[in-house]
Automatic annotation (TrEMBL):
Its main location: membrane. It is found in: Membrane. Residues 1-22 are annotated as: Disordered. The keyword Glycoprotein applies. It is a single-pass type II membrane protein. GO terms for molecular function: glycosyltransferase activity. GO terms for cellular component: membrane. It comes from the Eukaryota. The chain crosses the membrane at residues 34-56. This is Uncharacterized protein. Keywords: Glycoprotein, Glycosyltransferase, Membrane, Transferase, Transmembrane, Transmembrane helix.
Amino acid sequence: MVMEMEEGVKDNSAVSTPKSRHTNQSRSLLPIRLLQILLLLLVLTLGISVVGIHMIKFLKFQHLDPVAPTTLISMYDHGTVALDSFIRPPLNVWHTMNDSELLWRASMVPRRNGYPFKRVPKLAFMFLTKGSLPFAPLWEMFFKGNEGLYSIYVHSLPNYKSSFSKSSVFYRRYIPSQAVAWGEMSMAEAERRLLANALLDISNEWFVLVSESCVPLRGFGFIYNYISGSRYSFMGCADEEGRDGRGRYNIEMEPEITLSQWRKGSQWFEINRKLALEIVQDTTYYPKFKEFCKQPCYNDEHYFPTMLAVKHRILLANRTLTWTDWSRGGAHPATFGKADVTETFLKKLPGAKSCLYNDQQSQVCYLFARKFSPSALEPLLKLAPKILGF
């Protein structure tokens, strides 16, 4: 019986073994499933975190100023940043800059030699006027056929409205201006304003200041070659004795300007780009002249000649290209009308008793002349093709 009972026990053990194995297998699979669930939760958590970060960034961008992304898209998608945008001259010389902004902008200059594009140097004609240009038809004849070699800038009284047609070379060439008083610093300021506007065109290499009573004495080609071929700029810088020279000097200008540096010259000049930049960027001599050069000291006769003679004397020809007649005396030169303009009169104007061109004696000393009254226009138009060469 004992043996039978033992065998019975053994049999029962044999029958229960598969069930025990199944339980053990279930216990071993439980940690794996738990690990899978934990991994799944980790992946879901990371996914939700990434989505949340992107949502936060998106919501933040919604509160930014919309101008920034628009500007970036405009710059890169539409190619606005190109060399052309820096070198192309403005079609219209009008702008909204004040004098401080204009002079600052005009004083910018490349520091690298040479140009990465084909540059045709131009003559910038700067007309300092009260308003109208009575000799505009003569100047139109002068400029005709020389497009691309010149540019025009006109400074008039602020309230003057020009009426030139689109076909005129003077159309939209009036710059933003200020009131000008004869003999005051405002005259030199107007000249600096003209230079600054002309400097905005990087192709302008030479700068000629004329008035509404000035006329050209030669054809455009001759004048272009004469100026471009000169080693000097044409501005008087004489050390003149007497009341109208050194007598106008004010000792309060020291130490920036001494009596030995004081110079005098004609208001009407022609200078190159290097000297034009010197004038518009000047902050040393301008305050001294503005404060201490009062009538009978005239800034337009002393400011530029003195400043340029101090710094760049060897670059100046010490003479003007604009002829005037001071033989009658007085504060203003002689004015010529219709009866004065004859063939003989015009033939005599370009010459002088003595002048140098590139350190050699020359028979041509003047390229422009003044003062002419509006009545002189008719004979000038008639004689220009024969005598003046245009």
